[in-house]
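User: quick one - fold this with pyridoxal-5'-phosphate bound?
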Amino acid sequence: MQKSSQLPDKEGFFGKYGGKFLPPQLEAAFTEIIEAYGRISRDASFINELRYIRKHFQGRPTPVYHAKKLSEKNGGAQIYLKREDLNHTGAHKINHCMGEGLLARFMGKKKIIAETGAGQHGVALATAAAYFGLECEVHMGEVDIVKQAPNVSRMKLLGAKVIPVTHGLKTLKEAVDSAFEAYLADYQNSIYCIGSVVGPHPFPMMVRDFQAIVGVEAREQFVEMTGELPDAICACVGGGSNAMGIFTGFLDDPCNIYGVEPLGVGTKIGEHAATMTYGTEGIIHAFRCYLLQNEDGSPAPVYSCASGLDYPGVGPEHCYLKDTGRVEYVTCSDEECKHAFFKLSRQEGIIPAIESSHAVAFALKKAREMGSGTILVNLSGRGDKDLDYVLEHWGTGEEDA
Ligand SMILES: *Cc1c(COP(=O)(O)O)cnc(C)c1O
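Assistant: Sure. Structure tokens for the protein plus pyridoxal-5'-phosphate:
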């Protein structure tokens, strides 16, 4: 097995996953990004400026917190949380959006273009654009625009232009196509920014590199707090960026690592988004990965109570880590996620994002199974954005007090 830090290869492959399966018209644009990132990411002024931004704008380092009451009430291993919910804007996505924005500025681009589904990536990117004084164009399906109205307002307040996508199912897939088209039409002036460790090379590598700060900090903080490494580490996996961020810090250590996927309401197609568990090899958004797909290879419908996790593909490095056995991929249902959401809120005073609650739910199960030892959870985001959903569907959680 190759060390993860040596991957991907020059063509962007992690084993057989990844790559860039682009229409020929986009080859030149992506070659330019690969070349620029290779050069700029080693430049001292780029590194220093990113460091400054993380500290003074985002509020890094985010703490590691020992959830003593949650651990005690649950029984078993001690649970620790890497508090990515305390980032400016409330989640880990800002880690790679600020990196992408800074890259855009170093490349002399005036505009950043992206798609968004639930709107979280759009908001983080619009924040980066405002910081760097770049134009920002976010493509979003008309259906999602209605469903995610507060995030649409946030993007507009931050100065971004939200482009409604009106064809097909009017959701994420069409938004991706629309963003690619806009980028193709104007790639001299603009850069395309993806929202996770997915898409064509170099994005899975670049987004991982920008997120790796999470694992670097967490490892150092955990060792300082306890004198040891955690026995287990877990994170939720949608596209896989917050998980790659924390995993990268521990891949060479003797720790058990778990990626947690959403099992939704069942194991049938359309009831979940557990790509690693139920998917098969395929191509989506110009890269190869495990994919929940129909017989004709088109992406299958997916569902999760966490809108940030309902993606039918998954980052190529995760696929590689699954095949090599270094990381184990597991699932948590909506129901398990719900109880974890309320337990963390009521027992620790931390309202987690529904996405992150999947990782907490697995940690609670695993901690009981382990009986003792430690488990470090990447708490990818805060739950403020989810309050309407929670109150409407779940109530206020008295049984989890
Ligand atoms: C978007 C999002 C996720 C899922 O994205 P990954 O790329 O898998 O990390 C997880 N948690 C939160 C809070 C999110 O906003």
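One thing worth noting: The mean pLDDT is 96.
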